[in-house]
Amino acid sequence: MKLMKTIIGTTALTVAGVAAHADSHNMADSMTVVSWGGAYQNSQVQAYIEPYKEMNPGLEVITDESSGEAVTKLRAMSEAGNVTWDLVDVTAADGMRLCDEGLAMEIDHDEMLAPAPDGTPATEDFGGSIVSDCFIPQIVFSTTFGYRTDMVDQKPESVCAVFDTETYPGQRALEKRPIGNMEWALICDGVAIDDVYDTLETEEGVERAFAKLDTIKDQTVWWSAGAETPQLLADGEVVMGSTYNGRLFSAIAEQDQPIGMLWDWQMFDLDGWIIPADLPADRLARVKDFVRFATDTQRLADQAAYISYGPARASSAPLVGEHAELGIEMAPHMPTDPANAENTFLFNYNWWASYRDDLDSQFQAWLLE
Q1: Which secondary structure element, helix H or strand E, spans residue 76, and what is its range?
Q2: Which of 64, 226, 304, 327 is the most buried (most CB within 10 A)?
Q3: 3-class state of residue 46 by DSSP
Q4: What count of Cα atoms within 13 Å lies in the side-chain half-sphere of residue 360?
Q5: What is the DSSP string of 281-329?
Q6: What DSSP designation does 195 have?
Q7: Could you tell me which of 360, 352, 364, 359 has the C-alpha nearest to residue 97?
Q8: pLDDT confidence tier of residue 219, bands split at 50, 70 and 90
Q9: Rounded alpha-carbon distances, angstroms, from residue 330 to 48, 250, 311
Q10: For residue 105, how many C-alpha atoms fall within 13 Å in the half-sphere facing its CB?
Q11: Residue 172 carries which DSSP code?
Q12: How far apart are CA 18 and CA 40, in angstroms?
């Protein structure tokens, strides 16, 4: 842990020394950063925002927890001609949608983002995680399941345990959107992994997924924020539920809750920043300065000291060390750890960017049935 703190501290001093020479006169003195709340947003505050504020005295950073509604809110702001957000954390699929709709700014990744310490350009270092001209990758995460260890007679081994109400009676928690739920429903209804998205492209496939979800619909609490499932589990209100792996890590390792994790068919995903299109020059200058700082090799590794998400840069992975406070090694808690990644489902960003609006409306209508 001392080594991690030394690395972090040394990097902060080095970057601060460089940043001190930057011209801050043309930058806005406030910035609104939108994310997902809870343990994840706290990791961003600890690793990025607080160090950046220390380097920029007097800067006001307003944090917002509305990323779950980022697409609809940015659409509304754009129509009203009043975009109040400066930087928005989104999933890869949402970043692609916002880019396609012209609501997110296209960027030159090699120009805006710092190279790796050995000079490797950002585009090579981030590699395939750059899924859109507007998307600035931060983390690899997964949506998976947690369960109450003291409320089950036998440890669940399969994601399909969520549909097994006989062996695992009690309430479940699932996200109030189709992503993830539709894929798991088809997998647990016998569809081969490679055929999931082809099946979902058909009306029959969508009906099949909803039919499977119907079997647990009345025993499900539907969540919108990532912090809800860990709280529901902690309170004993659900026996199992889906959420982001970092939220479960926080509940288990930091809060010592009686919760276990189920990695089977965890759904790999990417998260990153987008910059809203057409920001005023002073706000854009501030955001670009912050983004270059917050996405460098060391900073992405620093975030992993607060939450168990894998950094999106290849050069950051070797720098992932211990939890900033607990002193436990973080690598074994990452979704990418080999022991956790035996059965992983690779989320199809392009597919969801194309079909999300249609399936969203069908899913919300199904919930009301």
Answers
A1: helix 70-80
A2: 304
A3: helix
A4: 10
A5: HHHHHHHHHHHHHHTSHHHHHHHTTTS--EESSGGGGGG--B-TTT--B
A6: G
A7: 352
A8: very high
A9: 18, 12, 12
A10: 21
A11: E
A12: 28
HSE (side-chain half, CA atoms, 13 Å) at 60: 6
pLDDT at 341 over 90: no
- Dist. CA 163–CA 216, nearest whole Å: 6
For the chain, which domains are there? 2-134+275-319 (3.40.190.10), 141-266+338-368 (3.40.190.10)
- Do 87 and 64 form a contact (C-beta atoms < 8 A)? no
Residue 61 clears pLDDT 60, i.e. is over it: yes
Nearest CA-CA partner of 300 in 104, 113, 128: 113
- Residue 253 one-letter amino acid: A
Both tokens of 93, joined, read 């699929």
Burial 265-274 (b: 16+ CB within 10 A, else e): bbbbbbbbbb
How far are the Cα atoms of 7, 223, 238, 280 from residue 228, in angstroms, in the given order? 34, 6, 11, 36
Q: Residue 352: which H helix or E strand, with range?
A: helix 349-368
Burial state string for 97-119 with b = 16 or more CB within 10 A and e = fewer than 16: bbbeeebbbebebeebbbbbeee
Task: Measure CA 221 to chain center.
Answer: 21
Question: Cα 47 from chain centroid?
Answer: 15
pLDDT tens digits, residue range 235-271? 999 999 999 999 999 999 999 999 999 999 999 889 9
- Alpha-carbon distance 135 to 269, whole Å? 13
Helix and strand totals (H; E) in the chain: 15, 10
Cβ-based neighbours of 28, under 8 Å, separated by 6 or more: 86, 280, 282, 283, 285, 286
Contact 123, 130 (CB under 8 A): yes
- Token pair in block for residue 359: 């399936």
